[in-house]
Amino acid sequence: MSSLSNIMKPDYLRVGAELVLERINSRLQAGPLWWFRFVGRTSERLLFTPSCIRPSDPLVARDIYQGRFTFSGRTVETGATSVFDVEAPSPAWENGLHSFRWLRHLSAADTELASENARALIDGWLSGPGKRIIGVSWEADICAARLIAWLQHAPFILRNSEHSFYRRFLASINKQMRYLRAFARGCQDDLKLLKVRIALAMCSLVLTSHDKTRTRAARNLEYQLKRQIYTDGGHVSRNPDAIADILCELLPLSQLYIAASKPVPSELLRAIDRLFPMLRFFRHADGSIAQFHGAGIGDADISAAVLRHDVTNGQPNGIANQSGYQKLVENDAVVIADIGRPVAGYNGVKTHASTLAFEFSSGRNRLIVNAGVDRLCRDVYDAPARATAAHSALVLDDKSSAQFAVFSSGRRRHTRLLRGPTVVETQPWKTENGEGFSARHNGYLPTSGLWHERGVLLAHSGSRLDGYDRLTPESAIHKTSHKADIRFHLHPSIQVAEVGDYLQIKTDRGEVWQFSAINQKPMIEQSIFLAGISGPIYNWQIVISFEYPDVDSVKWRFERI
């Protein structure tokens, strides 16, 4: 324990200092946030309207009209009180409210009553949170999302509106645009800044702007796309959910350039072309996204809506080296594995200790999963979701392969990676029986002196998945005893039971698989699936436990029968 404490304490201080410096630098670059800094000439009209490709539901408009607001799984009944005056049940709910993305549901209703309701709610924001540049409402990514939503649904919002509201609405759009321009100077190169740059590029086309302003906005956006989108199409955060979210904003922006008769920035087109295949890379046959590094909150309907705009139907490669993922596809079977290092710094706010974990599906049956993240975004589940034990991977001495620190600032929590695997070595396989890979990481070296190696081979028929997990010492003299647990989390729809020397796995669609391990007895234990639609639910997991160095390698097999 003493050696671990010596590792953790300086790392904690270093990461904490980095977080403080990030916040100080952001404030220094943005300058004083006095409201009069963002007062200026107001555009007389909107030249164009960006489209919105996010799926919408007119029934949600009815709930909003009745004062019922549901975001991130939480519902608030406002009654006669303004929704902006009620106490938010969670930070995620508050983010959803102030982002105004819910305007698409009112717009889908397409009635005069819905339009009046939208104006009343926007008026409530303008006379409340919109008056003072402070709080959640003015966090850069929330402001960017709100600005995009207002531009996308402006014709609906302004339908039969009074001139006074029209002027206040346009004045606020211009104010928020100037605020984002100032704040962008202090933002780190992360997903938040990318969304800000997208919003500013939209404003440069929708509002009356000089050519220099449009050129500068396009150039800044291209710079962020180069910085944040890997050549394989992944985002630097390694969060699969980020891809569909980015495409939801980039596609309307590219269409807006065409509508405005302006050349579409080349880097914008390249980013879209790379993102589409990567979105397919992370999808299982049932449309769900692999649950790695914070993914699991995103709606599968959003991915489907985005892919309808892919005219090239670009297919992904089997390995995404930059993003750190491997995908095996044989017949109707899919394996998606994390073969990368956890992300540190401001791009790693959602990173998990999931190195060498994988998910496995057969047709529309999801068999092996990771626990995912709580859709209600409750802090109590954040640490368990990040742990290696919440992933289908090997856990050594009940510790994770990466450690994290949580720093609080008011109601906001900031999680940062303290340490984790710094080396992940991968070797792809191609045999006459199937395709696979082997990989190893050094995440457990500081605490145990051991490397974890995993090999996976998916048969060409898609009916068998063979694998092994091995522990190898850094030094030949390292023979300290350690307890290892190999965990395979089963999807909540799966039933598992012991049948002789095997475990029998049944899906709700009638498929039957069996699991076996050589020289080791697999056990069935209860687990928890955090990514349930209504919150965490119980599921089962298969666990193979062994003691090192008595046992240093375990072979296992999933086979359809």
From TrEMBL:
InterPro entries: Chondroitin_lyas, Hepar_II_III_C. It comes from Ahrensia kielensis. It is found in: Cell envelope. Pfam families: Hepar_II_III_C. Residues 320-556 form the Heparinase II/III-like C-terminal domain. This is Heparinase II/III family protein.
